[in-house]
Amino acid sequence: MDPTTAGLIGIAVFFLLIAMEMPIAYAMGLVGFVGFSILNDPAAAFAVVSKDLFSTFSNYSLSVIPMFIWMGFLAFYAGIGTRLYNFAYKMVGHLPGGLAIATQATCALFGAVCGSNTATAATIGAIALPEMRRYEYNSSLSTASVAAGGALGVLIPPSVIFIVYGISAEQSIGKLFLAGIVPGFLLMFLYMLAIYIVTSRNPKLGPAGPRATWSERFKALGGGLFEIIVIFAISLGGLFAGWFTPTEAGAVGVAGVVLVTLVQKKLNMDIIRKSLSDTTRTTAMIMLLVASAVIFGRFIAISRIPFAMAEWAASLQLPAFVVIAIILLIYLVLGCFIDALALILLTIPIFLPVAVSVLGYDPIWFGVIIVMVVAMGVITPPVGMNVYIVKGVADNVPLETIFKGIWPFLFAIIACLALLIAFPQLATFLPSLLN
Amino acid sequence: MQIFETLVVKISRGLDFLAGLILAATALLVVTNILGRTLINHSILGTYEMVGFLTAAVVGLAMARCAVEKGHITVTFILERFSPIVQRVVEIIVGIPAFFFFLFASYHLFLYGRLMAISGEVAPTTQLIFYPFVYLVAIGFVVLALTVLLQVIKLIIGGER
């Protein structure tokens, strides 16, 4: 069989299997193995699979994943989310839509520490939604603001998706982290602007809360919050300065959070046990996905699909931005159905050579754009993971009501993407300083 | 069946607990290495290698419990539209190849580890043997395969999805 045809059949079988509820990691590994066996040799395929599985799991670069995840879960169980929200609420709660605006700031900061879309949406949702209900916020605006804000953490470092993209695309994780900072905060401000515009036009959607005094605001920084922010800055600052490897930065973050929460008497054996348990489960999920994607990637590589795609893209004679727009559209559509992490692992071997080698785009910039597009997937129907999480927290709000409130946030993401395409320096400037 | 289920769930939880301990030890090793390097200008030889091997052990030992708790990412909204019987049949159909894939993967990981043991392969920096870590990952895949098998059997005999 022609390798490219075998590759296309393999991709079709993969989609069929995931539609049949086979976990994505299993489907990638299985299709990759069978495809490699057909195009090469079953004995060689098994040798490659066992070697790939162990070498991926024992890859030092990937050991960063459990470290940052553990740091996030420790912060989560130690109640950092509540303290962050309290601080943001005291700062901007008095503005029209102020609580929803405070939610964005909290999501950005907590998402950055935590690194997980769903954990951020669940935590901040549980804290912010009752407050917004108390101040009679429109349920569509309040729930959608939590769902959208929950995705901010994928752009602001440390982001597990950037780590996985960096390893798949063989790019510096430190540079990717730096590249995500400006777009992440830009998106946060655009979300805030969208809330401000919507609530200014119709103040009933988000009535202003009481104004806090400056002493109340400074007081809200207490309870270990300030120390956590400092630890976070040391961990990431050390990484950017070249003092630590990404794994070491994660371990420093873990040690710092343990130390602060211990001094604050917020740490106990139960929190350590729960955070470790959640970390090992999440790590196993991600790492099996990454290892399966390596196996699947081998199959895709020998099927010559990336070369065929690159040749096809070159033969189109279209301006580069049109081709990149088509690729982004594909990501946008797939992102509505497939988890962001899995989608990136699945498609990087196919689209990265086209974007970088054929079209000449910066792989760091491409990573930021792709992460932003797949982040849209967590708030768009039918999968919209964050919307389902928020629905779980706000039981009495129908899914349709949440999706209805998503529109201003989708426009904000599109505006952010347009700015990134028009001004790539927004993503590439900070990483260029590392050179 | 009940005994098999209890056994698989208990083993997966036990392995996951071990994975948690190894993860904590790994973080401690990394931090100790940084402190040693910064304070007394003395690094722990082979930290990078050990962190890699320990992470492999963490992942290998935690995979099965992740599967027991349905933690691996799945696209559910398509199959949800079908009747419960169709859902069960489809899940049995996809479960069987997954079981055999993980079983074969674990078998070949054992072979890979054995080959390392026979050839005397050691880590480049510390010169330590590391095939036991390969065996740990292989054990993780055996339990993962058993977890998938348990889920298939439960679907066949009419248990919950």
Question: What features would you describe in this structure?
Answer:
The complex is a heterodimer of chains A (435) and B (161). In chain A, 78% of the residues lie in helices and 0% in strands. Chain A has helices at residues 3-19, 24-39, 42-57, 64-77, 80-92, 98-114, 117-134, 139-149, 160-168, 173-201, 214-220, 225-241, 246-263, 269-302, 305-315, 320-335, 340-358, 363-377, 385-393, 399-405, 407-422, 425-434. Chain A contains 22 helices and no strands. With 435 residues, chain A is mainly alpha-helical. Chain B starts with a helix and ends in a 5-residue tail after the last helix. The interface between A and B is large, with 57 and 58 residues.
Which descriptors apply to this entry?
heterodimer; A: 435 residues; mainly alpha; 78% helix; 0% strand; globular; B: 161 residues; 4 helices
In short:
The complex is a heterodimer of chains A (435) and B (161). Chain A is built from 22 helices and no strands. Chain B has 161 residues and is mainly alpha-helical.
